[in-house]
Design brief:
With 330 residues, the protein is of the alpha/beta class. Helix content is 54%, strand content 15%.
Length: 330
């Protein structure tokens, strides 16, 4: 029997006992109000006084009412206590399971804030098969998460919450809070705790982008500005915009744009693109190269370009083609 049904049955039994007692005392000569009063004081065991003298029949009826009524009241209290402790126990066990699940994650993405931007980031990452941990101060917001998504109620400006979200083993942190001051503080905290983690922070204004970079954000992104630019590109170059939309977001196509890091000692490191013949060997199309973290992207690189260790290759291809390229670069 479910919790709600048990509670309804218990309350119905209490109402039935009250009606039974009232009718019984009315039949013994009490007025309706006197009968209700006598029933309530008897069942509740308060027992201020008898409204009027009880004969033998009245005393026998009162004894029966006490036995039935007190039993019903105790049953109601038991059901209420069971529902209360059952809910608390369930929440405690669910929290323990979630904490254990988060502690076991490696290479996940922490989403700080589950507003409109955080929700969109979560949907994109989970649809692409990435593990995420969503953190928000509002438990009701987190209740809207799809089943199976790891989450945590807390304030990401606190180091403890970032630790509980698995920052030590996270691949990246997306700070999508609604307040720039909190975003800067959360970025500072995450950078201090994990100097090498990728941090992408939401900037609500152009001025806040510079502050977020100073705070340690790897990238500071203004969603409104990006959205406006995309609208403009769709208006002027719809085919170009559709191409980038498809390669980045469409799950129904087999090809993707992906970045591939070049490891020291790999087959790619220290060799020219002409020697490597990436397209012929892997099928992936090389779009651009970033030689080091501080350099800009070099689109359509020439065959003479020598790829150093630590470079990043940007390539277009199917998952098997991109995996073949990644194997060369490992």
């Amino acid at each position: 029997m479910g919790s709600v049904r048990r509670l309804v049955v218990a309350l119905a039994a209490l109402v039935a006992v009250t009606i039974f007692g009232t009718v019984g005392y009315v039949l013994l000569g009490f007025s309706t109000l006197e009968a209700v009063y006598q029933t309530v004081t008897t069942v509740s065991t308060v027992g201020f006084r008898e409204v009027r003298p009880l004969g033998t029949a009245g005393q026998a009826f009162t004894i029966a009412l006490i036995i039935v009524g007190v039993g019903t009241v105790l049953y109601n209290l038991g059901v209420a206590l069971e529902i209360l402790t059952e809910g608390q126990l369930r929440q405690h066990l669910e929290r323990r399971r979630m904490d254990a699940r988060i502690a076991a994650l490696r290479g996940h993405v922490i989403i700080c804030g589950y507003g409109r931007v955080g929700r969109a980031a979560t949907d994109f990452l989970t649809s692409a098969g990435h593990e995420v941990v969503v953190v928000d101060t509002d438990a009701d917001r987190l209740g809207d998460l799809p089943a199976g998504v790891s989450h945590l109620v807390g304030d990401v400006t606190e180091d403890r919450v970032l630790r509980e979200a698995g920052l030590e083993h996270a691949r990246a942190v997306v700070v999508a809070l609604d307040n720039d001051a909190d975003t800067v503080y959360a970025t500072l905290s995450a950078r201090a705790m994990r100097p090498n983690v990728v941090i992408v922070a939401r900037a609500r204004t152009t001025d806040s982008k510079a502050k977020l970079r100073l705070a340690g954000a790897t990238r500071a992104v203004n969603p409104q500005r990006i959205g406006g630019r995309r609208l403009a590109v769709f208006a002027l170059q719809p085919d170009v915009a559709e191409f980038f939309d498809v390669v980045m977001h469409d799950e129904n196509v087999d090809w993707r744009v992906q970045q591939v890091p070049v490891a020291a000692g790999s087959e790619v490191a220290g060799r020219s693109l002409g020697e490597l013949r990436i397209r012929a060997r892997t099928g992936a199309l090389l779009l651009a190269v970033r030689r080091s973290a501080g350099d800009g992207l070099e689109p359509n690189p020439s065959d003479a370009l020598v790829v150093p260790a630590g470079a990043v290759l940007i390539a277009l291809g199917t998952p098997p083609e991109l995996e073949a390229l990644a194997a060369l670069a490992r």
